[in-house]
Amino acid sequence: MCRLLGVVAREPAALGDLLAEEIPEFLALSREHADGWGIASWAGDEAAVVRDVAAAHDSARFAAATRTELDSGLLHIRLASSGSPVAPQNTHPFVGPGIAFAHNGFFAPRDALDAVIPAELLATAAGNTDSERYFLLLRALLREHDPATAISLAAARIRARATEFASLNCLLLTEEALYAYSEEDPRSEVSKRRGPDFFRLRYHATADRVVVGSSGLPSAEAEWSLLPYRQVLEIHRSDLRVTIHPADPAATAA
Q: What pLDDT was estimated at residue 221?
């Protein structure tokens, strides 16, 4: 399993300054979630992505990346699922034209979505993770839907086609906004073993920034708002406006 952290700020600043309290906590989690890390960011109209298979707490590249100036970004640390190698092509975030995506959880089988991903997108898969398939399905849905609807539909199609899943938690970063989605199956082995809070996402808004993150960040546990399951959090880059989108009605029949 993995951990997620995202931020949208009113003014660009170094990532380590924007998340001065959260970065040390996130690095502490990387001692368990030690199978790579990645950061995607926007500053103005420029996007950047950096990834590494080293553990974030032991990576000079991660330390350097925290000096990147940005106004919005997502961070991912990976705990690889069984049978999914620690390799650059399996490291989040996955990127496409104008978007970056990171997933926390798993579904099985890994090819459950292959029949509903357009062939030309499926052919671009570089790794063997279920998470990359989630991303490719989302890219296909974004051709016809807004991001919040596309995320809801992608999650519904996983529920309909996978034989099992633990969590569909994800962050999606676009030029316009950062999106977060939270959903788990409490019957999964991971949820039973880790407990009912393991896959929760929480968010916190101030005048200068909005942050969203996985459980395990002590600063978030008590004071941040819980993102309800099957709802999409949208944080607008232009003005930090926060919108909560309920599950799209079409997603219940997907």
A: 66
